[in-house]
Design a protein that fits this description.
The protein is of the alpha+beta class and about 180 residues long. The protein has 3 domains: about 20-75; about 90-120; about 125-178, Nucleotide Exchange Factor Grpe, Chain A, domain 2. Helices cover about 50% and strands about 15% of the residues. It is built from 2 helices and 6 strands. The strands form 2 sheets. A 3-stranded antiparallel beta sheet has the order 1-4-5. A 3-stranded mixed beta sheet has the order 2-6-3, with no helix packed on it. A hairpin with a 2-residue loop joins strand 4 (about 160-165) and strand 5. Helix 1 (about 25-85) packs antiparallel against helix 2 (about 95-120). The radius of gyration is 41 Å and the shape is elongated. The relative contact order is 0.09.
Amino acid sequence: MTDEPQKDENIEEVKDVEQPKVVLSDIETAQAESAEYKSGWQRAVADYKNLQKEVNARQAEWAQYSERQILEEFIPVYDHFKMAFAHHPELKSTDENNKQIKNWIDGIGHIMKQFGEVLKAHNVEEIKTVGQVFDTQLHESAGEEESEGKAGMIVREVSGGYKMGERVIKPARVIIAK
């Protein structure tokens, strides 16, 4: 017997099998490409989130614009309703007919109050007038009259004014003291 290892006849001897050569530059290139793709993906996600925020902001802006437009159309109706209600007759509830009319007036007053509450719920408030100093941002002069008050003070309201937040929807028409 020889000291040579025995070879299995069924196994072929493999010679010159090429081992895979991993080049360091290929790994670095793959890592750089991976980082570039990841960076691009992160930018795309950030752009998408920004787009979502912008779309949501525009939707909120359109909703607020629509609400403001409807309220601007509603305000003159409420204003005329208030003016008409201010001229209701004073009745004593002695006879049945006067009681019915007084109940009707009270009901109309309740409806007017509800109108005011709806406006308030939508951040609409009436502009203060009588006794205030005339402000061109809030008031519109309908004239002047002699008064005991100091000049520039509002002595009478011709028609109410309204603002929504800080934005004036309708300036108040007023009479100011000379």
